[in-house]
Write a structure and sequence with these properties.
- The protein is α+β, with helices and mostly antiparallel strands.
- The chain contains three helices and six strands; from the N terminus they run E-E-H-E-E-E-E-H-H.
- The strands form two sheets. It has a four-stranded mixed sheet.
- A hairpin with a 2-residue loop joins strand 4 and strand 5.
């Protein structure tokens, strides 16, 4: 069982994934050591998992092939399946198409 700490009371030497990334590190396959919980009104607490900083590994460098694959993936998120054009922004998953295509049926009525 992992240790549970209250919000902002985690001991030194532990960090969340986001904090590790800010330090240029990644968990590197290590298991979760502890978690912090932030209470919320009328809902369950927010949970953040903590990893040991001394066992963290450096972030893998971005290679040209990885950068190319990331660019293709981001371009696919901008492509509207309805009008087959680059929307110039990431298409909202809630709409599934670009905003003009999503508004067209509503404006036609």
């Amino acid at each position: 069982m992992t240790a549970v700490y209250s919000w902002r009371l985690a001991p030194d030497g532990l960090a969340t994934r986001r904090q590790l990334r800010a330090l240029g590190l990644r968990p590197g396959g290590q298991d979760v050591v502890a978690q912090v919980e932030r209470p919320r009104h009328r809902r369950g607490p927010l949970v953040a998992y903590l990893y040991r900083i001394d066992l963290a590994q450096p972030v893998r460098p971005m290679t040209p092939r990885r950068a190319e694959a990331l660019a293709k993936a981001n371009a696919a998120r901008r492509w509207c399946p309805n009008c087959c054009r680059d929307a110039g922004y990431v298409i909202p998953a809630s709409l599934g198409t670009c905003v003009p295509c999503a508004d067209a049926p509503r404006l036609a009525a």
